[in-house]
Amino acid sequence: MRLNQCIFPQPLKQSFRAVLESILQEDTPMPIDPVCKMEVSIADAAASHDYHSETLYFCSLDCLRKFESDPAEYMDNMSDEERIA
Ligand SMILES: [Zn+2]
Question: Residue 67 C-alpha to ligand 1 middle, in angstroms?
Fold first, then answer.
């Protein structure tokens, strides 16, 4: 933390917003593209795919095609933490 953040209190509204955003981020983790492992926001996902009742999101159609060619390989490589519950 930088010193000037301690000296000058933030406006209450801004602090509340920061807290709210941190809560929202915890409740809705970013989906992870199972092919390239990057975080993909649902709004920005190029493609989605239903796999065993999970909805997976992909950064690009290339990743979707790779996944569809061998879904088991990519799902096996994901830890439980990376899966979207
Ligand atoms: Zn990708």
Answer: 10
